[in-house]
Specification:
The chain has 221 residues and is an alpha/beta fold. Helices cover 49% and strands 12% of the residues.
Length: 221
């Protein structure tokens, strides 16, 4: 039997926790294994339980009582270095987006996302993709494009790798990139793996940020 995806939710509003539980309950491959109202409770669980009880994915709110989601992100990663963390929040503020990505978030979704978008985000992040709300993705591209760029480009990425990374920056997922470039999803996987290796980035948001700051590509729009 295929192992189910165990999700940990860190969210202080009981009503929203219930909504997420109902959404995930409609699937056959995802289970809400743990839920906590504070980051401190989450960290206490991770510190005091065996590795096999750790989640496959963490859904993390940013605005939490006590320790904030931003501050908790690197601490959760320290306990679960191989567990992707998807920020799930109401905030689309620029400072929060950049802080979360800089702290190592593997994805950034808004609470206004549909149940289907949340489910797809959970499944896609385990495939090495980075679920990013389209509004947030557009902001990332605009912000990074307007950041000062170095004069010299090192040409680390190939033209096709740059194309894949540009589409990631637009918020497209692997299947959509494959369709846009008329290549297979397996080929997209290979490109993404090489991009992460070359840029020494753990995920798409980090790779996008590094590419822009290195002046590797500058989309016109």
């Amino acid at each position: 039997m295929k192992k189910k995806i165990n999700v940990m939710l860190v969210e202080d509003h009981p009503e929203y926790r219930e909504s997420v539980e109902l959404v995930l309950g409609t699937t056959t491959d995802i289970v809400l294994a743990h839920q906590f109202g504070t980051a401190d409770q989450c960290l206490h669980f991770l510190e005091n339980n065996a590795p096999e009880q750790r989640p496959d994915i963490v859904l993390l709110d940013l605005n939490l009582p006590g320790l904030s989601g931003i501050d908790a992100l690197p601490q959760i990663t320290a306990h679960c270095p191989d567990t992707p963390i998807i920020v799930l929040t109401q905030s689309d503020r620029e400072t929060d987006v950049l802080a979360a990505i800089g702290a190592g978030a593997s994805g950034y979704l808004l609470k206004a996302s549909t149940g289907g978008q949340l489910i797809n985000g959970i499944r896609s992040v385990l495939k090495g993709e980075a679920p990013i709300d389209s509004k947030v993705a557009r902001f990332m591209v605009d912000f990074l494009r307007n950041e000062p760029q170095p004069a010299d480009e090192d040409g680390t990425l190939s033209e096709r790798e740059l194309a894949v990374l540009t589409l990631l920056g637009e918020g497209l997922v692997k299947k959509e990139i494959a369709n846009r470039l008329d290549i297979s999803s397996h080929t997209v996987d290979n490109y993404m793996r090489r991009i992460y290796e070359k840029l020494q980035a753990p995920n798409a948001p980090a790779a996008i940020a590094k590419a822009y700051k290195a002046g590797l590509f500058r989309p016109d729009k």
